[in-house]
Specification:
Layout lengths: L5 H18 L3 H10 L7 H9 L7 H25 L4 E2 L2 E2 L1 H4 L2 H22 L2 H25 L7 H26 L4 H25 L13 H4 L5 H9 L2 H10 L7 H11 L2 H22 L8 H10 L6
Antiparallel strand pairs: 1-2
Length: 321
Amino acid sequence: MYILKKTTEAELNRVQVNIAKELASEKIIQELYEYIFSTRGKKTRALLCLLASKSSKIKSNKRVALASVIELLHTATLVHDDVVDESKRRRGMQSVNQVWTNSHSVLIGDFIYSKAFILMVKLNISSILDELANATNDIARGEIIQLSLFEKKQCITLDDLLKISYLKTGRLFEASAKTGAMLASNSKKEIKIFGLLGKALGTAFQIKDDILDYESRLDTGKTPLKDFREGKITFPLYFALQNASTKDKNFLLKKLGQPRLLKKDIKLIHQLIQTNETQKELSGLMNKYTNETLKYLNQLKHHPCYNELLYLINISHIRKI
């Protein structure tokens, strides 16, 4: 069984402490911070950065600082996403824009972003600053592309969805792994491998997250059919639309984006997602990116965190070890 080393767990805890110190400020900011970070999550991206940066040459403080930047960037995108999507819940709790207002969410998101960039500058490594600045820009670009494409509904292609998944999710995974390897002063070849691993892992992570949206289990932390109610065509719905009859396809497109759904509608939506054809295509896509992740990981067997990277793949739910 693959587990994290105690030293890595301690570093991950220090990321939380570091973020608390950096965001300590006026009362309202403190309240918003404490609410946003009251559910810690797995910090998958921060952990990926910590593992990729593992080296006897680099002090732990620098690695924790970089992982803190990654976590701040990720958190800022979540806060902004909830405003764009008009989401009511995040990680099983009311979203910030529901407890306060959209204005609070946008501004605290901006505040968190700016703190991340302050920490980036303090690291004083231009290649890392360049990579993370580009990644942040790509994430915003992905949101804009998604917003534009989802208005077209039937015109969305699989390539469109893969592009959005990369920009919105895979890109920060890629940057987390790549900048971690940069910090460790690894070879250009190893930095590239880590980047490709992060990109594949992030894409697989997004595919799995899309699948979870159509599972009604409460332990996923997601509102069932959240993406569907928000009008998003994600991988499960894309394949279901490709495989559905004209009647069922029209039903799905008619109900897509409706916040309130009848029980009979929810049941039929689930049935159309769970068809053998759709599940086979989803499984094939998941396997493709999971295998890519493992392919790049196999090129890092010499790395001191190889077993912990296997653990990370496990907790990302893209593969059961």
